[in-house]
Design goal:
This protein is α+β, with helices and mostly antiparallel strands. Helices cover about 35% and strands about 30% of the residues. Strand 3 and strand 4 form a beta hairpin.
Length: about 80
């Protein structure tokens, strides 16, 4: 079992800026705000949502890799759109 999965099972505290996995949306995201029982999340594409804290866990190594790949893809898309104008 990897370190992130172990941390998720032991109830590690969430912090702003952490990459996490949201069970409701079934995808990794970055924490932008924590307010009571809710965690506010954002994806590289700009998609934002609020999820219950209990539905969020620290991302695994694979989910971190997935998030970085999505961020890279989004950067390339934005660069491509700018070159069209």
């Amino acid at each position: 079992m990897n370190r992130q999965a172990t941390a998720a099972r032991t109830g590690t505290r969430l912090v702003v800026g952490a990459i996490v996995y949201c069970r409701h949306y079934a995808m990794p995201a970055r924490v932008t705000r924590i307010s009571g029982t809710f965690v506010y999340l954002i994806r590289p594409s700009g998609l934002q949502w609020r999820s219950a804290r209990v539905a969020v866990r620290p991302a695994t190594d694979w989910e971190h890799k997935q998030y970085r790949a999505l961020a890279k893809l989004q950067t390339q898309r934005e660069r491509g759109l700018r070159s069209l104008t």
